[in-house]
Amino acid sequence: MAILESTHVVEHPLARVFAFFRRPGNLPLLAPPELDMRILEAPEEIHLGARVTVQLRRWGMTVRVTSQVTEFEPNALITTVQAEGIFRRWHHRQEFTALPEGTRLSDHVEFEPPGGLLGLMVTPAWVSRDLEWLFAHRQKRLHELLQEPPRGA
Asked: What is the pLDDT at residue 153?
């Protein structure tokens, strides 16, 4: 099993950052446009047991992934596991920590790449590079989006 960890500081208060991540509708806003990510099914807000189904384009094909929230602590933690999708295993833990300068967002991803022919191309190293690219894009977009006034304000 491969593991990727990423940590960065978001210069916004913990409650605001967590509230943004709690809404699945915000996921496509954080994804690179090349992924063409769409929410197919999700609650308005994440909670323990919630399932989120997305469709995206990667590795030359359209992929559908359903994740389930297995751990949830408000303003602290969201853990999701792949319930359906192309990976043999996917476990993503996001921890949120208040800092004087904002919020530390720590990601811990454990995964096993797809099997079959796709698994010959989509190696752990390839997936890790993809995740690093995604997290870098997410960090930039999160900064841009949180500069805007909150929705409904």
From this structure: 45
Are the CB atoms for 75 and 14 separated by under 8 Å? Answer: yes
Q: Is the pLDDT of residue 149 over 70?
A: no
> Region 114-136: what's the mean pLDDT?
82
Q: Where are the beta strands (DSSP E) in 2-152?
A: 2-10, 38-41, 51-58, 61-73, 77-84, 89-99, 102-112
| Token output for 38 | 């769409």
SS3 (DSSP) at 31: coil
When pLDDT is averaged across residues 102-109 and rounded to a whole number, the result is: 97
State the CB neighbour count (10 A cutoff) for residue 50.
Answer: 19
Q: Which backbone phi and psi does 144 adopt, to 5 degrees? A: -65, -45
If DSSP codes are grouped into helix, strand and coil, which group holds residue 13? coil
Domains defined along the chain, listed by start = 2-147 (3.30.530.20)
